[in-house]
Amino acid sequence: MFQILNIKGSVNFLRHAVPISILSAILVLGSLGSLATKGINWGLDFTGGTVVELEFSNPANLTAIRDGLTSEATDGAIVQNFGSSRDILIRLPVKEDIKSDLQVSHVMSAVTQLDSAVIQKRVEFVGPQVGKELAEQGGLAVLVALICILIYVSFRFEWRLAMGAVAALGHDVIITLGVFSLFQLEFDLTVLAGVLTVVGYSLNDTIVVFDRIRENFLKLRKGTPVEVVNTSITQTMSRTIITTGTTLVVVVALFLKGGTMIHGFATALLMGIFVGTFSSIYVASFLAIKLGINREHMMPVEIEKEGADQDTLMP
Amino acid sequence: MLNKYPMWKNLMVMIIIAVGAFYAIPNLFGEDHAVQVVATRGAEVTASTQSAVNDVLVSQGIAVKRSELENGQLLVRVNNGEDQLIAKEAIADALGDKFTVALNLAPATPEWLESMGGSPMKLGLDLRGGVHFLMEVDMGEAIRKMTEAKVADYRTDLRAEKIRYAGIRNGAKGIEIKFRDAETLANAERFLKSRSNDMVFTDRSTGSDYFLIANPSDVYLKQIKEEALQQNITTLRNRVNELGVAEPVVQRQGAERIIVELPGVQDTARAKEILSATASIEFHMVDQNADAQAAASGRVPAGSEVYQRREGGPVVLKKAVMLTGTHIQGAQPSYDEYSRPQVSINLDSKGGSIFSNVTKDNIGNPMATLFIEYKDTGDKNADGSVKMKKIEEVISVATIQARLGRNFVITGLGHAESQNLALLLRAGALIAPVYIVEERTIGPSLGQENIENGMQAMIWGMAVVLIFMLVYYRGFGLIANLALTANLVMVVGVMSMIPGAVLTLPGIAGMVLTVGMAVDGNVLIYERIREELRNGRSVQQAIHEGYGNAFSTIADANITTFMTALILFAVGTGAVKGFAVTLMIGIATSMFTAIVGTRSIVNAIWGGKRVKKLSI
Prior knowledge:
The structure holds two protein chains of two kinds.
Chain A: H1 17-37, E1 41-42, H2 44-47, E2 49-55, H3 62-68, E3 78-82, E4 84-92, H4 100-114, E5 119-126, H5 128-156, H6 159-182, E6 186-187, H7 189-219, H8 225-257, H9 263-290, H10 301-313
Parallel strand pairs in A: 1-6
Antiparallel strand pairs in A: 2-4, 2-5, 3-4
Helix pairs in contact in A: 1-6, 1-9, 5-6, 5-7, 6-7, 6-9, 7-8, 7-9, 8-9
Chain B: H1 7-24, E1 31-39, H2 47-60, E2 64-70, E3 73-78, H3 81-95, E4 99-107, H4 111-115, E5 122-123, H5 125-128, E6 130-137, H6 139-160, E7 167-171, E8 174-179, H7 182-195, E9 199-203, E10 210-216, H8 218-243, E11 249-253, E12 257-263, H9 268-276, E13 280-285, H10 292-296, E14 304-308, E15 314-318, E16 323-324, E17 328-335, E18 341-347, H11 349-361, E19 366-380, E20 386-399, E21 407-411, H12 415-426, E22 434-442, H13 444-497, E23 502-503, H14 505-534, H15 539-571, H16 574-606
Parallel strand pairs in B: 5-23
Antiparallel strand pairs in B: 1-3, 1-4, 2-3, 6-12, 6-22, 7-8, 8-10, 9-10, 11-12, 13-16, 13-19, 14-15, 17-18, 18-21, 19-20
Helix pairs in contact in B: 1-13, 1-16, 2-3, 6-8, 13-14, 13-16, 14-15, 14-16, 15-16
């Protein structure tokens, strides 16, 4: 058998914990700063408005299209390429007294003058009220997810570990959002789905490490908490690398091949996988140690019993 | 530590995977071009319709693949798109306008498979094209209608009870009933309370003003909203059926909104016109004591209101509604003896008895038909909702000649209007206006493109993962790959089995992601086995420990991911819901295949014998 990592004993991962935590803190603060100053480039789902996706028969001239959109109905339109030079996306803001149908028909009459064979691939209109509600709901969803996880992990593990896990998740979500804010990538509903998936994925990683920490506290009779955590991280390292690798491969495939409509989703996941893997060690585990996790906290009898149960259930 | 699965367990694994695979099969067959025939105007699709359609197709020389008569609709499958178009034209010509003939794509699942409940995954609009509307019901209007009716009720009730009131009106704070003294107020309050327990009465008397305010109770308010939503859903469903769209979706979302999805529809203008038109009629008695001209200049008698006639001129009508459009069961456009357009209406039995009672008491009196329509003004309110304009016109005033029953006619409309009114009345009036707050149209080419992109991503991702697992874990890798493949097949199978599950583009992304994440279970187990082997455990012990210790980790990790997927399902709409569904199914099936499935194979190969070395 060949191993990606073949480590005897344990690696002192936490030796670098302090400088890395500082780096993490800087990233989080930077993300918050960007969110505060630049905000998020909310997509149609959240702001409301109208989007028209067009396919031209020849590479489209963006300037010519912009120049064509001169009417009041199309005022403030954003014209951009979408995937290829022939595919164009036009975003129109919500107008007080102009219906979206009128906006679309103005766009169509303008672009058919440039290219009579233009195809209307997609039209979406979202009322501003719906968008606002959705943004509130979305934020609430992330919050509820974090709270549910806090409760579950406290229940299954221990509150110090739960705090660590939730801090790591908050860290991942904030940095992912920060990247979207910094580069002003469009944040739509699929990106929100991506962010929630990041929560799930990052937690996956954290739980695997925690599970081992719990086991090792019970099994290794000696060793400081730091040593136990280091051993646990080392033991799960090759699993972490492999799973991160396979997930990364499919997410990259989604990013490259999945088409423009799920680009944002794939981007959020790409970010989340990197940050999530890293935070399970340097944020989640480190915080749990700082909160004073030790062997006594890991002694609940029921958990051992539960493990025994499962052995007979799923041998 | 023999690592043997009992027979039943192996059988269970095999059966579950076989069932999953079986229900995944329908997805391999693709779709047939089909023509759908639905009856509209009181007609019915029967076996004779079927044979008529058959004859038409024979005469056109079009081969019929299969013709099914189900749930009052006929579905005829033909060989290709060209035949489909010809067939549609020919059938529509032959059957006339009592039927809606629409193009459709029907899953080409063989009959034997279909009879066992097999059907392919339903594709979301983003994968097959179509229109999606999110509509909001104007609840303010629904409540206003209710209070208006109450005002009329209280007036007649109090009068009948000989309780003298000074005035009743629908005010800003609720229904305001004014009295001359405290005693009458107390009497009225006692009486009204005993009559209606769905309203809350409060005494708002100040000084010499004696006011009683009635407001709907919270429970009643909720009930009104619920009924308005339900009725609008029914009505919209009827209207969608009139459009002749294959597999439309009309469902509620939350307390005030309705989703309408029309797959394959590209002409949004026509769809919108039919869906959001909120024409309705009401019958009122004409207030003969009032002078129309005086009323028009502002002197309107209490209990009456001024309306405009369609042809011009004011007319004073009693506020009390004799009958609303909700009781209308059928409406057909026709012509009277002078070939003027009219609409023949038939009422349901309740409507019929109400109508027959009021017309009996009013023979010789004029009755007006009030046409009410809500039109989108194009303006928006401050909160971003669409401002609606209410148009009310008296379309006819006729003297009641005799007691009217369940069938009668309305005259005074133009040709196109009578056609339109008949259509809308037949489909049922909307109890409160609805307006579109979200609209998404996806072209069919984009849908196809989305599917291809998703498939490409899946194939590339899956190929790399499979190769890696095989190289890295060898024998065990092969088993993991089998599990992964079985997992994918099962996700497809379960998605096909669950009636509400819809495959969307993010759903495909969810499947791709499942491929990447599902190996985690096996990686955890295998790494653990390797670790145990390194620690000097025997082969059998290592397998046992590996699976045993990894189980709780996998369970914890997956339960938490499942929770986030569940939350996503709760808040998401459309495509995102699709993602959440595939993710949840993927987690459940991957836990099964990665833990129980691979164990079954591992046990069969290595369990129960002396093994020196594992291929891991």
